[in-house]
Structure formats: C-alpha cells, structure tokens
Structures
1.
Amino acid sequence: MSHYVLVDCNNFYVSCERVFNPWLEGRPVIVLSNNDGCVVARSQEAKQLGIAMGEPFFRIKDLCSCRKVVVYSSNYQLYGDLSERVMTVVASMTQNFQVYSIDEAFVWFPSTMSSQEVVDRCVALRRRIRQWVGIPTSVGIAPSKTLAKIATKLAKKSASGVVDLSCPSLRREVLKGVPIREVWGIGARLEAKCHGMGVQTAWDFCEKNTSLIRRHMGIVGERMLWELRGISCLPLEEEAPSKKSISCSRSFGKAVEDQGTLAEALSFHVASACEKLRQQNSCARAMCVYAMAVIDSSTGGRRCFGTTVSFPSPTNNTPDAIYRAKEALSTWFCPGQRYKKCGVIMIDVIPETSVDPDLFVEEPSSKRRHILKTVDALNERFGKNTIFYGAMGVGREWQMRCESRSRRYTTCWDELAVVMAKGQ
DNA sequence: TCTGGGGTCCTAGGACCC
DNA sequence: TCTGGGGTCCTAGGACCC
C-alpha cells in the first residue's frame, strides 16, 4: 500500500505575518480578505476568542479592538512568495508531489517504504520548512488523500505535528470520532443528505452499502467511500492542468458611478486576465465582462450587468481585449447605478498552439507578441504593474480597501525588512 | 456604511446525428 | 397496425474546495 501525505501550513497567512513580526507569537492575529471584507485566517488565539472563518469584519471590529486582536489586510504578494518557498523545500525532499493550494501539498511515497521510514521523512520535511522558511506545518499520512486530510487535521492538535493513519484499527477508532461534515468533499448539502441516511460520522459512512451510496450520492460519493475505506481513488496530480477559465474581479473600495472609472477598473482586470492566459500559454475564445450594482442598500440586493464577447480569433492580447471590454461596457452601462464590483472571465480557454490562423483577421505580428512578452518580463522582474496600459488609469481611486497591509518584505525593494544593530 | 475571489467536477435534459 | 438504438455535444444548475 502506498502512502499519501498531506503537508499543510498552519494558519498560513497569519504564519506569514509572524515570520517578519515575531512579536505576533502568542497574540490573537487575523487576516482579512480583499477589500477588508471578512476574516480569512486566524491564529489559534483568535480562534479561541470565537472569531469564525468568513466572519464579516465590521461585525467583530469592536471585539478586535477591545481584545487587542492584531488585524491585517491580505498581502498576497508576501503569501504567494512564501508559499513558493515552502513548495521548493517540499520538492527538494520528495520525488512525487502535487501543489494543491497556496498552503497545501500532497506527497506520495511508494509501498516499498515502511511506515516508519515515511514518518521519519515527514518529520525531517516539517523541520526543514520551519527552519528554512519559518512556517509551521502539520503533516498527515494515510493510504488515500481523503484519509490524509483527516490525519492532517489531527496533526494540528498533536504535539509532534505528524499523524500516521496507516494502521486500520487506529483508523477505525479515529473515523468514529470524525463528524461526516469534516470529511473532504462533504459540504452543507451532502451533510444533510448523509444525516438523512443515518450517517453521522465518517465511520458510519464507511459501513454503508456501496451501491446505496452510489445511488444517492453518485460517483463522487462512491469515491469518497472507497477513499475513507483506505482504497485510493484520487490520484496525485503532479502536473497542474491548464485552467479552463480565468477570472479576475474585485470589489470597489467605495461605490463607482461613472463609466470612465468602470472602464479603468475593467481594463485593469482584463490586463491581469490576459497575463494569466499568457502565463499558461493559452488563448480565450470569449470573455464575459460584468459589473454588479447595489440596488437596495438596506437588503444588499444586487443587480448584475454584463455581456459575453466572442473574439474574432482566440486571443491573449491585452490591448485588443481591453478594446473589446470597453465596447462591451458601453452596451450595458447604466448611469445612476452604484457599482460595487466588476470583473472579467476568460472562457473557452484553449492552448495557444491550437489557435488556427484566421484568413480574415490580421495576425498579431511577432512584434506585438514580443512587446507583450517584454511587458510580462519587466513586471515579473521589477514587480506587478511596473509598466501598464494607460487605459488602466493612474490614480486608481476605485481600488479596494486594504488599510492594514504589512510590507511586501520579499517581493518589493522599497519594503524590505529593516534590521537594526544594537548600539554599544 | 458594512459580507472576497478563483476555481473544479458531475448530472440531467435537450438537441441533434446516423 | 404503428415509431429503434446508440451516441455526442452543449448548457444550466448543483455542489464543493481553498
């Protein structure tokens, strides 16, 4: 039986902040979503204060100030960079691994390795991530990904930070104590369905008849069943597949009412989306351009405006896409609305290599492609938006709130950490 | 005043084809 | 009298994840 391992960074965003601000250790710390909307990461101390994941910030503002909770806006450049460093360490110590999210990686070890060898490797890996990057992790080991998820959850509460669920009898005891909602893939709806079938714990689920689960929960349910029984159905995906759609959107710091500002914000998102397309060597056949307006501030009622534009030929060309987005905007823009958010979604994304040249559309010359590559390279090297299109605007007053962002210590020359030598 | 952003997979049903 | 069998593609909606 081979071994699936999940390496999960503890309270990742909070841990990133603590790397550069050690005084945050032992204190309640939270990190907010974009636009300082809601809570997306909490330190252990903040969890103990009863602050829930996803809680809107304005509701706990008072609690935070009276309990001295340290509040950060999210700093994705910092988190993204530290995530890459963690993944580099994982890659250096393992053969087969999958980056699953910004703070998680699955690792696979062959059945020729004994459980003890796997545990030893995980302990070493965990120690090295902590020492080289400064991020604490929890590691779970099991015969399937779904069980490894459960093992990792237990590891968060264990002293060693590593939990091995390879032993079937141990697994049985553990699963009896795991509520079905905590199983990977069970959300609110499926939880209710499970309760309806008399399933309360992961173990209850394991004991159900396979065809019954198949009937009620489809192929997804059956896979979960086998995974929980220790038969792996979800393989390691080492190559990140290309995205089939790419979306860029943001809420505004304050409501926007004029077309010019909306056009700037949309151009900004189009530029990000095209950059992402080029990064994965893809083009989009079409693009959805939309904005949301508040129609009733008392209920938060919203109305969505938008259109889908088909490109004459699949593209990842920023200026062309900006032109089309502005054209689209003028078809649905409605004066007097208070827009709260806007964005674009690139759809029908295909590999650049499979774009057939169109006889009737002018081919983007190699010169134009070269310009885009150069822009991307400059922004990669000197920081996001070092150079950008005029259509994206300069002041960008529409940008979201991020009132308490920490410095981008590892990605911005102007924001490096400053170390003072102690005077004599 | 006030609630983020970015994705994936599966299924069912309709349209259409041979 | 009386209407097959097998398949694909597309879309909308549902559910979930971090």
Note: DSSP finds 13 helices and twelve strands in chain A.
2.
Amino acid sequence: MLDSDDQQPPAQPPASPAAESPARGQVDPSSDVSRDTRTRLLDAAERLFAERTFASTSLRQITAAADANIAAVHYHFGSKDELFRAVFHRRVGPVNDRRLQGLRALLTAAAPAEPSLEDVLRALVEPAAALRATPAGRSFACLIGRSLSADGPHWKTIEREFEGVKAEFMPVFVRLCPELSTADLVWRLHFGLASLCMVLSDTDRLRLATGGLCDPDDVGTVVEQIVSFTAAGLRAPATASPTGPRAGRPSNLDSDR
Amino acid sequence: MLDSDDQQPPAQPPASPAAESPARGQVDPSSDVSRDTRTRLLDAAERLFAERTFASTSLRQITAAADANIAAVHYHFGSKDELFRAVFHRRVGPVNDRRLQGLRALLTAAAPAEPSLEDVLRALVEPAAALRATPAGRSFACLIGRSLSADGPHWKTIEREFEGVKAEFMPVFVRLCPELSTADLVWRLHFGLASLCMVLSDTDRLRLATGGLCDPDDVGTVVEQIVSFTAAGLRAPATASPTGPRAGRPSNLDSDR
DNA sequence: ATGTGTTTCAAACGATCGTTTGATAGCGGG
DNA sequence: CCCGCTATCAAACGATCGTTTGAAACACAT
C-alpha cells in the first residue's frame, strides 16, 4: 500500500476522438529530461492557485511565472483541470502516507492497548501542518485547505485522495470514543478537521490580526493547539439527542423583542 | 447602534473622472419602484456566488437568472465587485445585530455575574447557523463560510463587517477564560469559528458522506454541537508554552524510516 | 548525415468576460 | 404637451480566457 506516486496513463484530453494527432503520449515522469518544465509548471501553478484561485488564475500567468510557453500546459497535462489534479496529487500522497505510517506505528507500539487520543490526533494533524514549514508546502497548504471548503469540479478528485486515511483512522476513533454516538463523533471530527483546514489555508491573516501572537507557520504550536483543542472537544459529554427524532432544540435569544 | 441598513452614497465607479454622463445617481433603497430588479439581482447573485464562486460566476449568468439586462448590474451597483459587496452587506448586518442583541441580553440578565460560556457561544453561533434554515439564507451561508477561508480582493470588505462583533465578544471571552493566555484563547476561538465556517459552507457533502446522520441544516443540532465542542475546547488546560521561545515541540512518527 | 521522436515556440482560434454606449420606453409635475 | 428623471434594453467595445495548430529546435540511435 502507501501508494502515492503512480503515473496516470496517457490521459488524453477527452476532446478530439481521433486522439493521436501530432504528439500526445505522456512521458515517464522518472529519469526524464523535460522534468524541468513540467515541475516548473507544477510549482508555479501550485503557488498561483493558492495565492489566487483556480478559476481566477490564468494559464498565461502560470506559464509566465514558470518561464514556459502557453502550449506547454496542454502538452504536459492536457488541460487546465488536469494540471490542477496533478498539482494536488503530487503533494497530498506523501502527506497521507506519513499519516498512515504514524497511525500504524502508534497502534503497534501500544498493542494490545489503544494509543492515546492525543497521539492519534497528532498523527493526523502533524503531517498536514508540517506543510507550512516550507514556502512550497505553505502554498499547497493554502490550496488544500481552501479546496476542502469549496466544492467545484475538483471535489471528487480531492475526496478520493483522502479515502484511505479516512478508512484507517475512523475505526480507531470509534474505539477511542466508545461513549460517543456516531453522529457526535463525526460532528466533532468534522470540527477538528475544520480547524486544521482553517489554519492550513491561512494567509497571514491570523498572524497580522494577532500581532504575531498566533503564527500558523509555527508547526509545533499549531499541532499542539489543534490536538489539545480537538481532544478536549471529543472528550466532552455526549449531546442529549443520540439519534432521536428532534429532541432538544434549545434556541436562545428569545429573551425580548 | 446596531447599524445594518445604511445606503452608501452614489458610489460612482472609480473609472470615468467626469462622473455624471447619463444617469448614475444611486436611488433611495426604501420605498422605490425599481427595488424589484435590484433585489432580483441580489438574490440571483447570492445564489450563484454560493453555488459556484465569485470569479467563476459571470454577470451574464446572474442577469439571466434574475431575468434582467446585463447593463442593469452596472446601473444599480456600478460594478461586479460592488455587487458582491451589496450581496454580502445585505445579510451580514442582521446576523451580527442578532449576535450583539443576544450577547447584551445575556450580560444584563446575568449581571453582576458573568453569563455561561455556552450561552455566549450560542449567541455567537446561532444567528449564523440559523441562516441555513431557509434556501436563500443557505446560499448566503455557503458564501460567507467560503469567503472567510479565501482571501481575495473582498477580504477587507468582509473583515470590516465583523469588527463590531469581534470588539464586543472578545472582552467577554477574556473574562470567561481567565486562566488562558491570550494566544491560547485566540487559537481556540479561531478553531471554533473554523468549525462554524465549515458547517456554513457545507453543500450537502457532510450529509451525503454520513448517510443523513449529520445534517448542517438542522440548526438546533448544529448549534449545540458547535457550542459544546468549542466550550470543551476552551476549557481544556492551557498549553505548556504560554509565549515561551519554542517550548515543547513533540513531533511523532520518528519511529522508523 | 539521416531519420525519429520529444519538446518548445509564436501565432492564431473561437468563446466569453466586464464594461460602456445610445436609444427607448414609463412617469411625474410645470 | 413637453420636460426632466428613472429604468430598461439591444448592441457593441476591447480584453482575456482555454485551447489548438504547424513548424522550428533539440536529442540521439543508426
């Protein structure tokens, strides 16, 4: 397992049914001369997609930043959408691999007991938060954090990348939080990942708003803050309505008016 | 106070220094005949900005959905950017007013003691979460939740809308969490708002992924989940390093490899 | 040198974008 | 009746978008 670096087949653009007009065969990504232009395009696209947005970043801006020709994008990737997929796939694989490595190490080290909730959360959070330690990783962190809260045509692509992590972490959380209903557990994990996404996608706003007090690029602090906050939330007593019909809908501000 | 419905001055488009060529005077938004087209444009833009994105929604899509002419946008708002600002301003004002009302009611009801952490969080979360109860509000909820995690040219516009809420809620949280350092408090409130944003911007993904178990449109459940989770996180013991140099940077997965 | 396949380039394609224009209705008060 | 004002409309503006094309530049085995 731990697959992260497969190269897709030719992946010819869905248009043009007569596929092979001049030259379109994808090239082996390892030990290739043209890797220069390809990775330059990936780096530039990663940075610009993060700074602006996929929709508001033009291929001309990308190729200008990468010092390449416009047609190079379609030659190496086929289309703008597949360029996005390539940018995303290049970095999310290693992150998820580190997550699964960390989880498995914890499980075997603690067996037959269970690892601590904090350790499991750390294994999930740290590889992603560590992206913000490097400039390129920080660009990708903004991209991934932003893509998770905006579903466009790329949502299914993104979702698939995280299936393995979800499948392996969820049972562990279920065992570590036996007193929580499934709905409670899912809600709270959702909130924890929301916190992670918010930090990943931050672009100096939090640091500026706090006068440098809270720094999303301080990986160690970020990890401990998210882990301790989420662990405390997961340990909160279960809500009143397990899966009841509509039990307990307390709504405030009916005081006056 | 509680200002939410001020109309901006003429707000002439920054181009064309000789401003008044044919007809550009903004109209009084109350008791006006043309409110029809104006609000139809606002409604359509609100929905489409939420479904797609600001950048990937064209004015022609908006005017087609609003059954209006292309030029109507520039006649009533001046530009696409000011249309976004109008869409945002129309709904965020009442939400923040309800938040401040709720907070003040809590403060006077509990005086001279302090209200509970849960009640203050509820006053902050409920008015926003309640947006998801109506289709139009749900569109705006997606828009606001998404805009907060993506900073474009509209970030300063958005930030200004929330200044009042921030200024009035923050001192209360400081008093309610006296054992937390400022950095800890800001981090954890940031996480709580991240959870809120994630729920607001959800577009059926969570419900579909959980088989209907977690429904972002079930306002009562959402509020209680966010409030209890965030309150538990805020009550977690303070982290080791208050503002220390680099204390405690435990990094896992140094097991093998 | 020749041939083959890969990579890069300038230039153009049609489509769509935000914005502007000038004319055309509707409607009030003089 | 005509005038000033508001609102809407069809049509076009220049700019920029993603994509395609065909040829040049390059590498390298024979």
Note: The longest helix of chain B spans residues 80-110.
